[in-house]
Write a structure and sequence with these properties.
The chain is α/β, with parallel strands linked by helices. It is 29% helix and 31% strand. The chain folds into 2 domains: 2-89, Elongation Factor Tu (Ef-tu), domain 3 (Beta Barrel), CATH 2.40.30.10; 100-257, Rossmann fold (3-Layer(aba) Sandwich). It has a 7-stranded mixed beta sheet with strand order 12-11-10-9-13-14-17, with helices on both faces. A 5-stranded antiparallel beta sheet has the order 5-6-2-1-7.
Length: 285
Amino acid sequence: MFEIIVKQQLAEGIIEYQIVAPDVVRHHRPGQFCIIRVASHGERIPLSIADTDTEAGTVTVVVQIIGHSTQELAQLEVGDTILDVLGPLGHPTDIGTPDRAVFVGGGVGAPAGNMIVQKMKQAAAEVLAIIGFRTRDLVIYEEKIRAQADELVVTTDDGSYGYHGLVTEPLQQRLAAGSEYDVVIAIGPVVMMRAVAEVTRPYGIHTIASLNPIMVDGTGMCGACRVTVGGETKFACVDGPEFDAHQVDFDELLRRLAIYSGQEQQAAEAGPHPCRLEQQIGKMQ
């Protein structure tokens, strides 16, 4: 069991947790993720690791409350425990030694990039960070990323804060003005990552996307997280989660993400699914 020692609401429907998981912390590297399971009846939720504390042995995750399982997680408070925290999973971020790097984060992709920006600075890179949100009330991790990046641009879709527009626009403006970058890492909604890849493609900039397909076991056995990269089938949990964004079939990824949208909505509205086996045992007693 893994204890929650900090719970903080960052914005409407977005909660940050610090969870005691010393073994995960010991082996974690930026870019890797974990899978949590709230209780034995719950589904596994893949989550990026936003931060770690080696002394406290804690991992920090930021959760957007969307479906039934994240709603269950939201009911837990400080002192409660989570059944499973599996990790670290996936490959660490590999950016080499760039002179100039860009991180682009959308929504809860901003916290996911927190440790990646740290790694960029450790590589002595000059870092531009661009983080985008729908509106001012949803802006999160601004100060944490500002403290590490050489330049931070915050965008909002409605213009209520920062730059009025999409995250791709400040990047496009800098590239058009002649700015040169060695690597761009994008984390966020699939449509955002696809758009970032199309902005950087004409300039030949190495661009990495951290993919978030449907995931079950996290070991490559179930095949649920398969994606097509460069015409080849990859599994995001063991081959990723980061891939060359110019090689990802984003259209296929979007289709696969929508496969269970109806069932997910139904589960969120219906609450916990009753175990039929337990019901039958109850009838026999």
